[in-house]
Amino acid sequence: MNKVVCIDGPAGSGKSTTAHAVSERLGILFVDSGALYRIMTRECLRAGVDTSDPAAVAAFCKGVRVDFVVKGGRVAYEVGGEEPGDTIRTPEINAHVSPVSAVPEVRAIVTGWLREMPRLGDIVVEGRDIGSVVYPDSPYRFYLDCDPDERARRRQREDATKGFVQTEEQVKASLLARDRIDSSRKTAPLKVPEGAIRIDTTHLSVDGVVDAIASRLGR
Ligand code: DC
């Protein structure tokens, strides 16, 4: 069985940056689980599905087809032969992704996809329920946490590079709203997985976080 390194945590905690760095340092494939929920959300919006109607979302998402392709050290996703890129990172998708990802049928589909991925090689997966639900038996489970103001600052800087200009207050409100939905949903809520190693990244550099994770893996 190939290794699965699980990195969970709230939005802006540094999961994505850390998981990329772990993937590079250890030479394993990077997997972004949130992107799969974002793809589901984009497809719902494009098809005019009401994202506040769980039954409609569940029925529609059963038909969404995604191909998985190993590309440049990561598992890339293609919909209709194309990678979604930043079309899944808009404020509109941010506003709709939590209700879509709260639908149990959608979670079951995405969890099934994620469980197939170790066939492609050793992986590092970032998300919200990777160590708690998708891979609860992995010996390499980490939960990153961070002060909300610092998370908002990080996310605002990141969004600005994509051309989305928002105040830090707007970003913080959006992050906290998503945290609330992600942590309180019935199916696979965001939480510290039992037995996972918790790392507070507020005052740590990316290298510091990666060192802590790599040392747990004996690397
Ligand atoms: O990490 P992200 O911001 O791209 O995630 C987008 C949304 O998807 C987030 O609001 C919660 C949801 N998500 C989830 O429920 N479970 C995961 N494993 C990953 C993301």
Task: Produce the secondary structure layout.
Blueprint: E1 4-8, H1 15-26, E2 29-32, H2 33-46, H3 54-61, E3 67-71, E4 74-78, H4 91-101, H5 104-116, E5 123-127, H6 130-134, E6 140-145, H7 148-161, H8 168-184, E7 197-200, H9 206-216
Parallel strand pairs: 1-5, 1-6, 2-5, 6-7
Antiparallel strand pairs: 3-4
Give an overview of the whole structure:
By secondary structure, the chain is an alpha/beta fold. It has a single domain, classed as Rossmann fold (3-Layer(aba) Sandwich). It contains nine helices and seven strands. It has a five-stranded parallel beta sheet. Strands 3-4 form a two-stranded antiparallel sheet. Helix 1 crosses helix 9 and helix 7 packs across helix 8.
Which compounds are bound in this model?
A: 2'-deoxycytidine-5'-monophosphate
Number of domains: 1
Percent in strands: 15-25%
Main beta-sheet strand count, sense and barrel state: 5 strands, parallel
Which second-level CATH architecture applies?
3-Layer(aba) Sandwich
How would you describe this structure in keywords?
about 220 residues; alpha/beta; Rossmann fold; five-stranded parallel beta sheet; two-stranded antiparallel ribbon; 9 helices; globular; binds 2'-deoxycytidine-5'-monophosphate
